[in-house]
Amino acid sequence: MIRTVALTLIAPFALAACATTSPGVSGAATGAAIGAVGGAIIGNNTGSGDARTGAIIGGIGGAIAGAAIACNRAGGCRHNPNNSRHSQLYYDQYSGRYWYEDYDTGATYWQNGEPRTAPRRR
User: Fold this and answer.
1) Nearest to 62 by CA among 120, 9, 112, 104
2) What is the pLDDT of residues 44-56, one digit of tens each?
3) DSSP character for 97?
4) In percent, how much of the chain has pLDDT > 90?
5) Where would a tag sit more exposed on the chain, N or C end, judged by fewer CB atoms within 10 A?
């Protein structure tokens, strides 16, 4: 049981370490880790006492919730013309893609929300 919980926790932290540029991915990894711990504890203490199933269900739910919360805090994971933090769309002739700036961080993103540049240092 302890091995299962430990393995379930390692994967989200590894993802979070590798994917710190996209708010949705890092939020999903954090949410998965928190959900897996909570699910394992609840699963172990209720019903049949199955911590593994609880960790899996909690990890999935936590990943979904974490990604949604992180995207919402970042102003959305896609360009939204109604979001006051997003600039207008600009066309990059070299890549043939549209991009926008997040006014809060100074980072630029492609229209689909993928990072284009890193945030400015404050």
Assistant:
1) 9
2) 888 777 788 888 8
3) E
4) 9
5) C
Which are the contacts of 120, defined by CB distance < 8 A and separation ≥ 6? 105, 106, 107
Q: Hey, what amino acid is at 6?
A: A
**pLDDT tens digits, 80-94:** 777 787 888 999 999
The first and second tokens of residue 85, run together, are 């933090």
Which tokens sit at 60?
Answer: 């999935």
For the sheet containing 97-101, what is the strand order?
90-92, 97-101, 108-110
- What pLDDT band is residue 14 in, cutting at 50, 70 and 90? very low
> What are the E-state strand segments in 1-122?
90-92, 97-101, 108-110
